[in-house]
Each structure stands twice: as structure tokens, then as C-alpha cells.
Specification:
Shape: globular
Radius of gyration: 21 Å
Distance between the termini: 51 Å
Helix content: 40-55%
Structural class: alpha+beta
Strand content: 5-15%
Order of helices and strands: HEEEHEEEHHHHEEEEHHHH
Number of helices: 10
Number of strands: 10
Oligomer: single chain
Length: 317
């Protein structure tokens, strides 16, 4: 396979100059700067263009497939969700077989910069409700993959090993995991027929939050799947805290089972990922992983529920 060229400020500037003929220019052309470092030897894949646009370059064939699918998926999802999504103002190929999209920038900060307010939780509830309303068959027709629900018992065992490593590093009290028992993992297994469109990457960086705490937009739709809605509840727990995530899911009509499942997915993931980084098996930044662990393990009344009613549904009530 032909090696893709490494994008530079000059090559990016030349590309966007043809796309934004009426945009702001400096003497050297449009103002461009990397928004991400990019992988070694590949160069930045995401670039800020002025103050109103973001250019994303697919660095390889796998990313190209995901980016083309994302553009079609955003059009499908947009009518169903109450928050803004990036809109592509231009797209094409920046290298043979490798697409780009020039998107509008959704105004606001990230969930790292601003806390989500009660009204912001209602925005998140609208997002979860909208995702459930997206026709699954139409999403799959666009190439969105279907994924099986993860085993909570397998994740619980992995988390058990991880918390011992975290305890040795004085990062976590392993006793906190003891409340999540084997029978609870079995009881919280995903129920048949509960698959919906799942964003699958609801991180703090992908939530656009205004200074007043409203969730104004959601970025990063390339990893969307058809699968377990508890994964998005888990993503929100790691991004904005378990109490806010469960309140949003409850407002969206989810019952105790999917909320508890999402809570424990988030908690187990957070300890596993931090342990991997501490032992050198991951290069993810430690401060971000510690934030996710702190958010996921915030105390919440729902975690005291030890038995679920037989009629407790996994979806909307």
C-alpha cells in the first residue's frame, strides 16, 4: 500500500485555500494549526482552520471507511437529537483514497472545561432518547457495525486484577470493587432485543458544553455502533460523573438495570485503563484516566439497589 504523505501546515493551507475562497486570510494564507499531535510518522490528522472550521484528514484506509460512514451517519442522526453536530461544508480526497472533511466548529468548550448543569443533563437525556429513535436498519445499511454486549463478569474479573495493581501504586482502594459481586454481574447482563444506535465515544472531549452548563453539541461519531445502550451511559459516567449520567439516562426513560449496567461498565473500565497506563501497556495520559476514574466512582444512590424487579425493562419505561 502506498504510504500516505505527512500533512504539514503548508499542504493543509493549500487545501483549505481552495475550499474557503471567501474565508479570512493572512499574508501566508488561511490560519491553520494542528488540533492533535497525530501518530508517530503520520502527522496531525485534525487541524483548526481559522476560528470556525475543523479539517479532519483520514490517515489510512481504515480511517477512510469510518470517516465516509460518519458523514452519512450524521445526516441520519441529526433530525433525532436536540444537540448540534458538526456539519461538513466540504469533503473530498486529500491523498489518493484518503478523504477529508472540512466541518463547522460547534461553539463551546468541553466537559473538561465546564460542568454540566441540570439543563445540560436534560440535553444529554435528549441525546440518549434520540439515539434510541434512530432506525437501526438504516444505520446498519450505512455500514454501522453491530456489536455484542460485553460480559460484565469478564470485565469484573479484569477489574479485580487491575485494582490490586492500583492499590500497590496507592491509586485506588480495592475494597470499593467488592460491592460488585458475581451474582450482580450476571443479573445485570444485557437483555435480548435492547440494541440501539450507540455513539460509543461519549468522552469529555466529545461533549461541547457552554459556560452555563448546557450541552450544545456532540462530536466524534466515527466509532458509532449498533449495540448496548449501557455503553453510552458508561461513557457519560466517565465524562461527567455517574450521578449526572444516571439522571440523564433516567430522564431518557432507561430503568435501573441499564443504568446499573452502565455504571459498572464505567467503573470497571476506568480501573482497567488506569492500571494499563501505570504498567506501560497504554500511552493514554494519566491525568485524563484519573479524571475518568474519579467521575465513574462518584457515589450515587442507585448503586445501593441489590435486586431488580423481574419486570424492570432494559429500555424505555
Amino acid at each position: 500500500m502506498t504510504q500516505a504523505p505527512t500533512p504539514t501546515a503548508d499542504t493543509v493551507r493549500q487545501l483549505v485555500r481552495t475550499l474557503l475562497k471567501n474565508g479570512p486570510e493572512t499574508a501566508l494564507g488561511p490560519d491553520v494549526r494542528p488540533a492533535s499531535e497525530g501518530a508517530a510518522g503520520v502527522g496531525p490528522a485534525t487541524w483548526w482552520v481559522g476560528t470556525r472550521h475543523v479539517l479532519r484528514l483520514a490517515p489510512d484506509r481504515a480511517a477512510a471507511v469510518r470517516q465516509r460512514r460518519e458523514l452519512r451517519l450524521r445526516d441520519l442522526v441529526h433530525p433525532h437529537v436536540p444537540v448540534a453536530m458538526p456539519a461538513s461544508v466540504a469533503h473530498g480526497e486529500w491523498a489518493p483514497g484518503l478523504p477529508y472533511t472540512l466541518d463547522t466548529k460547534v461553539p463551546g468548550g468541553s466537559a473538561k472545561q465546564h460542568d454540566v448543569s441540570a439543563l445540560g443533563e436534560a440535553d444529554l437525556a435528549g441525546l440518549l432518547t434520540g439515539l434510541r429513535e434512530v432506525p437501526v436498519r438504516q444505520a446498519e445499511a450505512l455500514g454501522v457495525p453491530r456489536t455484542a454486549p460485553r460480559s460484565l463478569e469478564a470485565l469484573r474479573r479484569a477489574a479485580g486484577s487491575a485494582v490490586e495493581r492500583l492499590a500497590e501504586a496507592d491509586e485506588f482502594d480495592p475494597a470499593r470493587l467488592h460491592q460488585f459481586t458475581g451474582p450482580a454481574a450476571v443479573q445485570l447482563a444485557a437483555q435480548p432485543g435492547s440494541a440501539v444506535l450507540v455513539h460509543h465515544a461519549l468522552t469529555a472531549d466529545h461533549l461541547v458544553v457552554s459556560a452555563d452548563g448546557r450541552v450544545r453539541g456532540v462530536l466524534g461519531w466515527a466509532d458509532a455502533v449498533v449495540g448496548d445502550p449501557a455503553e453510552d451511559i458508561a461513557g457519560l459516567a466517565r465524562a461527567v460523573g455517574s450521578p449526572a449520567a444516571v439522571r440523564a439516562a433516567t430522564l431518557a426513560g432507561y430503568g435501573a438495570r441499564p443504568c446499573l449496567r452502565g455504571l459498572w461498565l464505567a467503573r470497571c473500565d476506568s480501573v482497567v485503563h488506569l492500571a494499563e497506563a501505570l504498567t506501560g501497556r497504554s500511552t493514554a495520559p494519566l491525568p485524563a484516566l484519573r479524571d475518568r476514574l474519579r467521575h465513574a466512582w462518584e457515589a450515587i444512590l442507585l448503586e445501593r439497589v441489590t435486586e431488580l424487579r423481574e419486570d424492570d425493562d432494559t429500555g424505555a419505561h
